[in-house]
Amino acid sequence: MRETTIERQTRETNIVLSLELDGSGTTDVFTGVPFFDHMLEAFGRHGLFDLRVKAEGDLEVDAHHTVEDVGIVLGQAFDATLGDRAGITRFGQALVPMDEALVLAAADISGRGQLHWDVSLPIEFIGSFDTTLFKEFLIALATNSGCTLHVRSLAGENAHHIIEAASKAVARALAAAVAIDARVAGRIPSTKGSLQG
């Protein structure tokens, strides 16, 4: 079973996160940031990851620390469950529509964690959620998982639709990248022999 539970506590946040890569999309999420909870639920459901998140953060300041730190811990969970990366597909991509929005995500479990983001969001807030924080979440996820992640919006006018399509596209791209490929036969899919930073 490729699963782990990670706890992270700082002066700003207290997070307990469990991830099972080969799950059924079951989620149990509470961060105190309702729109972010919705995106994490979509991420788990559409990546078929079993995901449980309990986060307490300094929301009296704003949601930045909570959202970013959940990204850090989720990235660490991917890193821990993947181990030496033996047998994985390594690359994954997804093109996800949501009404007028269309978002492309591509992932490479390369050991070189980085985000390349080309997404235009027409408004700064969805309810109380600062839309710029979703990029911060993905930076933390990519950096801490050792994944090169490209996210690009190809169409869209509604910020909710764009971010939700991005969440689903990233989930499906990662699901494809972390999938076990029987043809790899337990080898590490790299000419270097390593996919760890």
Keywords:
alpha+beta; 197 residues; Ribosomal Protein S5, domain 2; 4-stranded mixed beta sheet; globular; 34% helix
Structure description:
There is one protein chain. The protein is α+β, with helices and mostly antiparallel strands. It has one domain: 2-Layer Sandwich (Ribosomal Protein S5, domain 2). The chain has 4 helices and 10 strands; from the N terminus they run βββαβαβββββαβα. It has a 4-stranded mixed beta sheet with strand order 1-2-4-3, with helices on one face. The chain has a 4-stranded mixed beta sheet with strand order 5-6-10-7. The protein has a two-stranded antiparallel ribbon with strand order 8-9. It is globular.
Topology at a glance:
Layout: E1 3-9, E2 13-20, E3 27-30, H1 34-47, E4 50-57, H2 64-82, E5 91-98, E6 101-108, E7 114-118, E8 125-126, E9 129-130, H3 132-145, E10 148-155, H4 159-178
Parallel strand pairs: 3-4, 7-10
Antiparallel strand pairs: 1-2, 2-4, 5-6, 6-10, 8-9
Helix pairs in contact: 1-4, 2-3
Number of domains: 1
Specify Rg, calculated over alpha carbons: 16 Å
* Spatial arrangement of strands, main beta sheet: 1-2-4-3
| Uncertain runs | none
- The third-level CATH topology is Ribosomal Protein S5, domain 2
Find the CATH superfamily. Answer: Imidazole glycerol phosphate dehydratase, domain 1
Span between termini: 23 Å
Q: Which CATH architecture? A: 2-Layer Sandwich
- The geometry reads as globular
What is the helix fraction of residues, given as a range? 25-40%
CATH class call: Alpha Beta
Secondary-structure element order, as H and E?
A: EEEHEHEEEEEHEH
Beta-sheet strand percentage? 25-35%
